[in-house]
Each structure stands twice: as structure tokens, then as C-alpha cells.
Amino acid sequence: MSGLKNSPFGKRLRATHQDNEEDGPRRNRQRVNPIFYTATSSTTKDATPESPITMREMYGDRFVPSRDAGDMRTSYHLMDESGPSTPSKSRIIPTESDALKEQANAIFTSILHTEVTPPSPRRPTSPQRPTTSSSATTTLPPSTPTRKRIFHYTSPATSANPSTPTRRLDTPTDEAYSMSPVRAESRQLLESPRRQLRSVCKTPYRVLDAPELADDFYLNLVDWSNTNVLGVGLGSCVYLWTAHNAAVSKLCDLAGSNDTVSSVSWVQKGTLLAIGTLSGRMHIYDANTLQLQRLYKNAHTQRIGALAWNSHILSSGSRDRMVHHRDVREPSQRPFKRCAGHRQEVCGLKWARDGGPLASGGNDNKVCIWDLRGSKRASVAGSSTSGSGSVEDAGGSGSGDAPLWKFHEHTAAVKALAWDPHVSGVLATGGGTQDKHIRFWNTFNGTMLSELDTGSQVCNLIWSLTSHELVSTHGFSSTTAQNQICIWKYPTLNMVASLTGHTHRVLYLAMSPDGESAFFDVIQVRT
């Protein structure tokens, strides 16, 4: 036997037994499908009916996507003209109405979906299964199926199906006789009447010559009174333009005191006009009598760039970083309240219409909310930041010495401020060249509601009194579209129209007091 073991036959026999022992556990071992990463078994005993893995899942088949209800632009690799969202450097404010473009895009998408998606075939309804009686306990035996031809030829005259080609071609309105390159559904959509879009006049109804109009972002030299009189500061003079008769009159001339006008502001109701100067003086004139009513020689130590009225309270913001509040009924020269919340020049002031808080914007990129009535701000957990905007905890004392809220989200000077006349407590703010954003704030809880990248320096903001729309004027931009007046729909922030015509920055903006033609009576003062 020892010779048999050492013989070549014995060696081959032992090698065969070893291979069988090694292959035994391998056959019972699960394999991993490299395509679907699905563990499968090589033996048939593991493939039980209860196994959720099927042959199609193991080996798969071609995947044909369904594009019936998907996004047609994405499914067919159609890119929008605007392209992906890019930084503000490459953003261009369109010159045409976005509403018209959106309507055209919606029609195009509908027609594309109709043309590309094949019409759903008419499927015959399956016969209803007869209901069995409750007393029947036995099932019917299977019957032998009758012979049926696969191809059945019939005469068109005897066919009752109206969808056959011959019967379908008998219809005069069939697509085969149509001369249009699109289907009937698309043709009906194109021929249907469209919703008339709002028409916005793109040309100014009047152009005023404004020599010596200062090209300074931090000044406010134009304001419109409730008596329909426009006040404009030109150099050392202030001129009044009456809208109903186009009469022009000179209100004052400060050349004798070697001073220059830096800001003008009308009282909400009346004929008083407040004038701030570069030397820090503040004048109050009566436009009816053209007489000086008040003179504050030392209102501020530096130029006064922003003025705002709240009934008989006149607030002024200066380059000395202070906000002063004066009661014009009192003869005292000293303000009854001083507010210090900015570290650089105060270039924007705006009181809420309901006599609520005061908003101030500065060259330090900050927005402060003040309340002189002593109201305390709403307590917010973790008040260092609130919502999506950065908010500083200003103490919330409500005494007027510290702001109720202080917003740090802007990255450039904030001159444009506007309170929403339709929603209480909503404030719109606009940033300068390095920011280019319009942001909306809820001043009740100190949160930022939304923001809009305009792609251009935001110089002014004014709300419409008759519709929930916002008008903004722009200046410097890194794109070719500059010096525009844009109308935005709130809260969708879609552009309604853009007005052009200025060759320089639109630094000053005033609105007519009637409200009926608020956006159409924007006076364009050209240098």
C-alpha cells in the first residue's frame, strides 16, 4: 500500500480529494454581485420564494428614465440663459421686465413638455371580475382556452374602434392634416389670450436741470412735500419746484455765511423745510412765506447728512457719529435727546410712519433701531444673534440711550432706509458698493426676513403706498448695468421693471405724495 500512495496515481487521487474539500465551502459561500453589490447564493436551495432578491435585481437590465413629470430643462440638458447663481460681480440687472420673461419661460416649458412627452395611449379597460355568491364554497375548474389568432385582419368598415388609422384620418382636425409644426395642445396654448402685464413707462415725463448737484453718496439733497413741492439743494442754495405748475423759486442762499447745503427734509404735514449744512448748522424755513423760522448754529460739530421728521420732532444725523432729537416748538438750541450708536458718519435716518421707532444707518455698515417712547424690545433667547442676520445685544433698556436692535449684516455703508407702510415693523435697508444687497428686517424680534443681491450700489429705497412694491436706485456696479431705478415686488422680490436714463449715480430720490402714481412720478434729476 505504501507503494500505491507514493505512486503517481495516488498523488493525483489525494490532490483530487483536497480540491473537493476546498471547493465544498466555497460553493455554499455567498457571492457579491459587483454591479449591484447584492449578496447572492450559488446554490439553488438558497433561492427560496420568500427571498426578496430576484434575477432582475441580481443582474439588472437597462434603466430607461421616465421624463413625463420631471423638469424638462434638466431632463433634456437645457440650461437657463441666466446660468447658475454667481457672485454679485457678474450679476447684471436686466433692462427689460422680468415678469414678461417669466411668462415666456412658463409658456416655453409647457410647450416643451407637451411636444417631447409622447401622448398616453388609450388602454382598454380590464373586464370586471364577477362577484361570487357568499354561499359558494368551491371554485370553478380551469377551462381550456379557446384558440385565438395572433394576427386578426378585419375590414375598416366593420371595425368599431374609432382610433384605427383609417377612421382617424376621416377627421378633418386630425394632426396628419395640420400645417403647424406643434401639436394641437401646444397650438391652443399659443393662441390662447395671455394675461396683460403691467405697463411701466420707461421714459421720464419731465427732466429738471440741476447744476451744482453734489455727487456725494452720504448726502440727502432731494425731498418731496405733502403739498406737492419738490425741494432740491444745489450748492449753497435751496430751490423749490411746484409740481402742478412747474414754478421754480429760490428758498434761501447760504453763500453769505460761506456754507453749503448737505441735506433737506420736509415735515410730514405742513410747509416747514429743514436744511442741514456742511458746517453743522440747521435751518428751518417756511416754504409759504420763504422766511427762516429756526436756526441752530451749533446743531452738530460736523456736516449734517441726514434729517428726519416725526411730527414736531426733528432728528438729525451727522459725521460726528451722533443723532440729535429736537422739538422745533421749543426755542432751546440744545437737543432733548442724544443717541450714540454708530462709530462713523450717520448717513441715513428714517422714522416709521406710525410714529414708531427710528432707523439709522451709518458708514460703519451698521443699522440701529431706536425707540424714544421707552419701549423695551422683545426678549429673544441668545440675543447675540437672531434669525439669519447678525444682531447685537444692545441692552434693551428702552431709555433711548442705547438702540433696541443693531444689525451687522451689511458690508458697506447703509444710507437707504425704508419702512414698509403695509406691514408694521418691517424695515428695508440697502448697502453700498461693497455690499449691493437689500435686506428686510423684522424690528419686533430682530430677525432678518430676506435679502436680495442687486449687483449694484443701493443708494435709495422707497415703498409704494398703493401696492406692495419697493423702488430702489443704484449707482456703482461691477457690471455694465448701472445707474438704474428698479421696481421690486415684495415678498417674492421679483423685478417688475427697471428704468434707465441716468448717466451718473442715482443718489437722490423723491416720490410724489399722492400715492396713485408713486412709481411713475419719480423725478429724475440729471447733472
From TrEMBL:
Region Disordered, residue ranges: 1-50, 112-189, 380-399
One GO BP: anaphase-promoting complex-dependent catabolic process
Highest taxon in the source lineage: Eukaryota
Annotated CDC20/Fizzy WD40 domain residues: 208-518
Stretches forming WD repeats: 339-380
Keywords recorded for this protein, A-Z: Cell cycle, Repeat, WD repeat
Low complexity biased stretches: 125-141, 380-391
GO molecular function, one term: ubiquitin ligase activator activity
Cited InterPro entries: Cdc20/Fizzy, WD40/YVTN_repeat-like_dom_sf, WD40_CDC20-Fz, WD40_repeat_CS, WD40_repeat_dom_sf, WD40_rpt
Annotated SMART domains: WD40
Any one GO cellular component localisation term in the record: anaphase-promoting complex
Keyword presence, Cell wall biogenesis/degradation: no
Key word Cell cycle present: yes
Composition skew (Polar residues), residue ranges: 155-166
Comp. bias intervals (Basic and acidic residues): 16-26
A Pfam family the protein falls into: WD40_CDC20-Fz
PANTHER family reported in the protein's UniProt record: CELL DIVISION CYCLE 20 CDC20 FIZZY -RELATED (PTHR19918), FIZZY-RELATED PROTEIN HOMOLOG (PTHR19918:SF1)
Family per similarity comment: Belongs to the WD repeat CDC20/Fizzy family.
Protein name: WD40-repeat-containing domain protein
